[in-house]
Design a protein that fits this description.
Structural class: alpha/beta
Shape: elongated
Helix content: 40-55%
Number of strands: 14
Number of helices: 13
Order of helices and strands: HHEEEEHEEHEHEHHEEHEEHEHHEHH
Distance between the termini: 37 Å
Largest sheet: 5 strands, parallel
């Protein structure tokens, strides 16, 4: 039960609709919620000036094609997801963040903010009590919650995320635009791109190792294609053996053994969790024949870095490419 709870928490952070549905089904039930799914094409934020000066009002259109008018720039912002919180703090908006979810534990000062519930179980009364100028939600928040906030006359701005670096950059730019930090957002995205480029130049992978990213050592949940982790592995020079399927899924033990990964990244909350998962992984019959196990190329990967598409994606990439480099040296 504890393991399932952990997986579910990570799923919320990953904000992946299909994975959430799968995990619910895995528990033998049906998904009881409507997940925020954007069926509208991505549109650029529209911006119309209605007045000027300190009480300037601007109008924006979000990814659900909802239009909101806000006092600009917003002074009281509520974040409905950890990656949004991290982006807001990275844009220097710490003092304007009025509320966050209980999963928003980074940076450290985010823990000092008012808590507005979880990603799915939002506390609407708390959100209203904070009197926010702007609430930013994303994929992972339920569509029902988004609609309810809208009915409550809350300025909810929903941003879709499609599991790619380019979509992460788009999200950062959108948040920077609606918060009055556009120039900072543009520079921030440039810095992330440059940092990834520098890491690729510093750690050149020669062997194109077959990699497996393991969310759960016992059940072999992993990241397929159309995930940001798959993109990071490819950018680092590796081959994701799970890219046969889309999004997150549970790979069969037979398929895992047959693909024989050269390297395994174990997504864990800390070193202790990593060792616990590794013990479980080694319980799989026949796993001693896997190259990654025989050559001791199983590496810890901080799950927060890769499960939250946000500013720390560079750190996630660094852990992956360094792991591949260390594996080549063995």
């Amino acid at each position: 039960m504890r393991k399932n709870q952990k997986i579910l928490a990570i799923l919320f952070s990953l904000l992946i609709v299909s994975f959430i549905s799968l995990i619910v089904l895995y528990r033998g039930g049906r998904c009881p919620i409507n997940i925020f799914i954007n069926k509208q094409p991505i549109k650029q934020v529209k911006l119309n000036l209605s007045s000027s000066g300190k009480n300037e009002i601007k109008e924006f259109t979000d990814d659900l094609n909802n239009r909101i008018s806000i006092k600009y720039p917003p002074q009281r912002i509520v974040s409905l997801a950890p990656n949004i919180t991290e982006i807001l703090f990275s844009l220097g908006l710490e003092n304007r963040v009025a509320g966050v979810t209980r999963f928003c534990n980074f940076p450290e000062k985010a823990k000092q903010k008012e808590i507005v519930g979880g990603i799915l179980d939002l506390n609407f009364e708390k959100i209203l009590s904070l009197n926010p100028d702007l609430v930013i939600g994303t994929r992972g928040n339920s569509l029902q919650a988004i609609h309810r906030l809208k009915k409550l006359k809350v300025n909810i701005f929903a941003i879709n995320f499609k599991e790619s670096l380019e979509d992460l950059f788009r999200m950062i730019i959108k948040i920077s635009e609606i918060t009055g930090k556009k120039e900072d957002g543009i520079e921030f995205v440039k810095r992330i791109k440059n940092d990834i480029k520098k890491l690729k130049n510093e750690f050149k992978i020669k062997s194109s190792p077959k990699a497996f990213v393991c969310l759960d050592g016992k059940e072999l949940w992993t990241a397929g294609k159309n995930t940001i982790i798959n993109e990071l592995i490819q950018k680092a020079g590796g081959i994701n053996i799970s890219s046969v399927n889309s999004f997150w899924f549970k790979m069969s033990k037979e398929e895992f053994l047959s693909k024989n990964p050269d390297i395994i990244f174990m997504m864990s909350k800390d070193e202790n969790d990593y060792h616990r998962q590794l013990i479980e992984l080694k319980q799989i019959p026949g796993i001693e024949l896997i190259s990654a196990i025989k050559d001791r190329k199983v590496f810890y990967l901080n799950e927060d870095l890769v499960s939250r598409p946000g500013p720390r994606i560079v750190e996630a990439f660094e852990e992956i490419i360094k792991g591949m480099t260390d594996a080549e040296k063995k």
